[in-house]
Design goal:
Blueprint (H helix, E strand, L loop, with lengths): L7 H7 L7 H12 L3 H15 L7 E7 L7 H20 L4 E7 L15 H5 L19 H15 L5 E4 H7 L3 H9 L1 H8 L5 H6 L3 E3 L14 E3 L4 E5 L6 E5 L5 E3 L1 H12 L3 E5 L3 H13 L6 E5 L2 E2 L16 H7 L2 H9 L6 E2 L5 H14 L6 H5 L1 H5 L13 H11 L4 H11 L9 H18 L10 H15 L7 H14 L5 H13 L7 H8 L1 H12 L6
Parallel strand pairs: 1-2, 1-9, 2-3, 9-10, 11-12
Antiparallel strand pairs: 4-8, 5-6, 6-7
Helix pairs in contact: 3-4, 8-11, 9-12, 11-12, 14-15, 18-20, 18-24, 21-22, 21-25, 22-24
Length: 550
């Protein structure tokens, strides 16, 4: 199985035997002591099971998806994080688990996302359930079916173990009928929860039940004028015809208003755990209250912060700002995206192209550290959660930042040329022995071409900098060919110090700007070791000869 896959199968086998010995109990204790947030969340579920019975035979995790816009990276983040909690739970408990990816595809189509084709056609279907809106791409029977398929393809690509559920299917098949009737019986109590949160005008029209108009197919937001609990029906007034219309609340003839819908789903499916973004904090609170009215304990919740775009604005599916799933994977490996989702979920973070190199290198650092860790340190290491306790054994000897700078200095245009440098730097490293590093080389070429090269700006050294560069070149010429990265770093450091740089950061900044055409750069010792001592000498001598680098 690929290193990028979540090893669910292994966990499914292990979860039934994990409690069988004292050693396993020690493992559980050590995992909980790691304080990694997935284990803290998993512990909440263990306590939940002790406090209330679970007659489903499994613990149900849910992630929700609104297919009103194209799937974006936040959708993946929620499934990835939920999976991490699920895996942690399976280590410390012998209860079977299930994950549902639920699409709210019966929701009314409220506005046309700006990043979609056929804007005029789509605008003619506003208000209809998303599964009744034609697919603007022409590939599926509806807009929702198109987006649901894209979601599933992506989740499958990452190897997530989940069951997809469609709201439209659940409503029309009668899966929610029993709970919908119970909610009709509790109509007044539900209204008592929601109405205080609404403005005066909205209160006049609010109903937790949204009838699907038999005449237009539109999901209506109209007040209920009558209701018959025994018959399971509601009556509303058709604003266009003036007629009273009676419809069942079951069988897909009505859809629940959002907060009531979420609670209804929790009750009907028996959801035990669900995450939500900070913007849904109030919805979680109100849906939980409705769930309790229904005599049901709401699921354990985890509220995470929202991602921001390059301008520190909230990422929106309708705006299409921020990074798409495909864009991240064009410039960085899957593991780096998973790491970004693992780190500090309750902290708002920018999600733009410039975060990718840092995420890649942090993943490499965690992966390289894992073999020497044991106990709670290994359980706290993000790669345990990314790979469900089985990180790949490959050591990655070169950072992504170094690869980017190597491409910059060498003007490489293909992986084969890059590997010529890498194989000299890391003895025994080959594309076959180091497949992850081979992928990184490809990502580095792609990222450099689109995000580094367009912004490179070399400058001519001052007289003082020329003198320092000349001494650095001479020092490198006098250095053994086999000098280590640390020895080369000391040499660069000593040269800057000898030329009276009070702040050595200014010396390194000068090297970056003059030799690499950028304000920031790598650890110079590591760069010289990778690029090559003689190649670095030639680069410096070219500058000293008055050639303009490009």
């Amino acid at each position: 199985m690929s290193a990028a896959k979540y090893v669910i199968a292994h966990c499914q086998i292990r979860k039934h035997t994990i409690m069988s010995s004292a050693t396993d109990m020690d493992i559980i204790s050590t995992a909980l002591s790691s304080k990694a947030w997935p284990f803290q969340e998993a512990e909440k579920l263990v306590k939940r099971l002790k406090q209330s019975k679970n007659d489903k035979g499994y613990v149900l995790f849910e992630t929700g998806y609104g297919p009103s816009g194209l799937p974006h990276i936040g959708t993946f983040g929620e499934v990835a994080r939920t999976t991490m909690v699920r895996q942690a739970f399976e280590l410390i408990s012998d209860h079977p688990t299930k994950l549902i990816a639920f699409s709210d595809d019966m929701d009314g189509f409220r506005k046309v996302p700006l990043n979609l084709p056929q804007q005029e056609m789509l605008s003619q279907h506003l208000g209809k359930p998303l599964t009744s809106v034609p697919d603007p791409f022409g590939t599926h029977e509806s807009f929702a079916h198109h987006n649901n398929a894209r979601l599933c393809r992506f989740l499958d690509q990452f190897g997530f173990d989940y069951e997809f559920k469609s709201a439209t299917t659940c409503y029309k098949n009668g899966d929610f009928d029993e709970t919908l009737r119970a909610m009709l019986a509790n109509f007044d109590k539900i209204m008592g929860v929601i109405l205080p949160t609404l403005g005066e005008e909205r209160r006049k029209t609010y109903s937790p039940f949204l009838p699907v108009c038999p005449r237009t197919g539109v999901v209506l937001q109209v007040p209920v004028v009558e209701r018959d609990v025994e018959a399971g029906t509601i009556v509303y007034k058709d604003e266009e015809t003036g007629q009273l219309v009676e419809v069942p609340v079951t069988g897909g003839h009505c859809k629940m208003q959002w907060k009531a819908d979420w609670a209804m789903r929790w009750v009907a499916l028996g959801v035990d755990y669900e995450m939500a973004g900070k913007d849904l904090d109030e919805s979680v609170r109100l849906s939980s209250a409705i769930s309790r009215i229904m005599g049901n304990r709401p699921p354990e919740n985890y509220i995470y912060e929202l991602f921001l775009d390059e301008n520190a604005e909230k990422i929106s599916k309708s705006k299409g700002n921020g990074l798409s799933i495909e864009e991240w994977l064009q410039y960085g490996p899957q593991e780096s995206l998973s790491l970004y989702m693992f780190q500090a979920p309750r902290k708002a973070k920018r999600l733009y192209f410039d975060v990718i190199p840092k995420a890649v290198d942090e993943y490499i650092q965690h992966l390289n550290a894992y073999p020497d860790q044991d106990g709670k340190k290994s359980f706290a290491n993000p790669v345990w959660h990314i790979h469900n306790g089985e990180p790949p054994a490959e050591n990655v000897p070169v950072s992504f930042a170094l690869l980017l700078n190597l491409v910059s200095a060498s003007h490489c245009e293909d992986k084969e040329t890059l590997w010529g440098y890498i194989s000299q730097y890391a003895e025994g490293a080959t594309p076959e022995n180091n497949p992850f590093l081979d992928h990184l080389a490809g990502y580095a070429l792609e990222y450099y071409e689109n995000f580094v090269r367009p912004h490179k700006k070399y400058r001519v050294p001052t007289e003082a900098e020329q003198a320092a560069l000349r001494d650095l070149s001479d020092a490198l010429k006098s250095t053994d060919e086999g000098a280590t990265a640390e020895e080369l770093q000391t040499l660069v450091f000593s040269t800057g110090k000898a030329h009276h740089y009070e702040n050595l950061r200014e010396w390194f900044k000068a090297l970056y700007e003059i030799l690499l055409g950028q304000a920031q750069g790598p650890r110079m010792g590591s760069f010289i070791a990778l690029y090559g001592r003689q190649a670095t000498i030639d680069l410096i001598d070219k500058v000293l000869a008055g050639d303009v680098l490009s």
